[in-house]
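Notebook p. 47: complex prediction with aspartic acid.
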Amino acid sequence: MKKIVKFGGSSLADSIQFRKVGDIVRADESRAYVVPSAPGKRFDGDVKVTDLLYKMYDQAAAGQDFGKTLERIIERYTEIIEGLGLAGFSLDDEFEEIRRIMTEEPDKDYAASRGEYLNGRIMAEYLGFPFINAAEVIFFDENRMLDIRKTERVMGERLDRTPRAVIPGFYGSGPDGRIVTFSRGGSDITGSLVASACRADVYENWTDVSGFMVADPRIINNPVSIETITYRELRELSYMGASVLHDEAIFPVRRDGIPINIRNTNAPTDGGTWIVESTCQKSGYVITGIAGKRGFCTVTVSKAMMNSEVGFCRKVLQAFEDNGISIEHMPSGIDTMTIAVHEDEFMHKEQNVVALIHRYCRPDSIEIESDLALIAVVGRGMRSMRGTAGRIFSALAHARVNVRMIDQGSSELNIIIGVANEDFETAIQAIYDIFVVTRL
Ligand code: ASP
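Predicted complex, structure tokens below:
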């Protein structure tokens, strides 16, 4: 059994959190590779070290004094080193090097990556594991895209020779050897790459919640958590705004069939959520999760006999493509098709799109509706259950929510419901109640 353990910023925010992480790693011999993030927020209103590093870079690049910001960063690490009692261990040379580079040739990715790099150095010392600099095993091409082949080969060889190690998250290096970072939250991707390169049995992703919740805790008071979710369900939910993992983190492990286990550093005995390729485990409820986003609008194009007009849909879509607008959903009727788009992408181009649709396909009418929220009800169990849609809609009717759009994905894995922005929370609560609270 071989496990990769990735710890998020809140799990490493200070020395108290570091100790919890140490206990977790030491509790299980198979936890072979540790991928740390940078120190995150210790309390509401605190600043993440990565944000301080970006601030330091901005100041340095503008020729301003960045000394105070660097001092705040140094203080964060000093507390961790002293709190862990790492006598004789110092990062002073590293801090001097950062000061020098920021003065001589400030570089944004280099600055941002130091959060993980320094945390990795401390973690390696604390655990007594070798340290592997991510710049030596994760590679990007000249377009800043991950060079997956080189990364797999070099990292695979290195890990074969190093049975246990700490590898900092979030960054690698480009063809010229300079540091390149992933997008924000990218340590999740590093963990996934390490898991794939060493053919791990499990990728444990430790954070500050006991897994994925059935619904957003900002809307539902104390929602239940999901025990097992498939990659596809997760994709549907995260596309609709649910966020626990970086979107791109799934791909390396998914390809190799490695399950991800989301765990809580502050409640290590909780089982968390398992993210798997496929499962015969039935979830306790008909649905796996609910997620949604506000701020959509729909464009409904009507034309009598449109279904017999070859190329009609393509021409309508062309009007959106020509304006660089991506389409979220597309439910259709017999003589109508509706296109749901992001309001902020669409708003300032709406009249261009309408004009083009008129020009390309001469419709009878075009109607635009705004202030729409979309809610995805996702569940692998829905396919084999009668009446799921019926229950959703009667729950919404009881809650006096008017349904403005319905779209069921052909996978039968999800039902997307459009409601007025102002009904968003009431609708989620009603759906949650019917499936989870009353367990209908
Ligand atoms: N520290 C980086 C961030 O704040 C990367 C990560 O935490 O995954 O985005």
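Notes: The chain has two domains: 3-208, 289-437. The mean pLDDT is 93.
Next step: compare against the earlier run before touching the bench.
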